Amino acid sequence: MTYYLKSKQKGNRGEALVESILSEHAIVHRIDGSKAVGIDMICEWVHDENPIQLLFAIQVKTKTIKLKIKSPKSNLNLLEEYNGSINIKPATLQYWKGFDFPVFLFLVALEKGKPEIFYKRYTSIVHGLQENTKKPFY
User: Fold this and answer.
1) Taking the model in full, what pTM does it have?
2) CA–CA distance, 93 with 113 (Å, rounded to integer)
């Protein structure tokens, strides 16, 4: 008998939600789950209706979690900052380090009610410039 595990269902819902939202701003190329090794999507930014040849990678984690607000406004991007970290395997971090474009972790938090989406850019983390636990989610 074949099973469609609850964990797989939750992950698929999170990836579909992130893809749906990113599609307003980027061309999203989803990587087949059977071939994914640390990246779920590769995206290209779009300005108006024009692809602008800026690529970025996405890893989606869907968790039952509630992040706590760290700051109401970031000096970097004026977004709210949230404390939190997700455990990423060292081999995955090393893999991400090899990309010549940014890698973002998107967290889909499924804490009672509607899902919330947060992101964290991992470029400075994989290059040892910032600790995962110190860098906020937005």
Assistant:
1) 0.89
2) 32
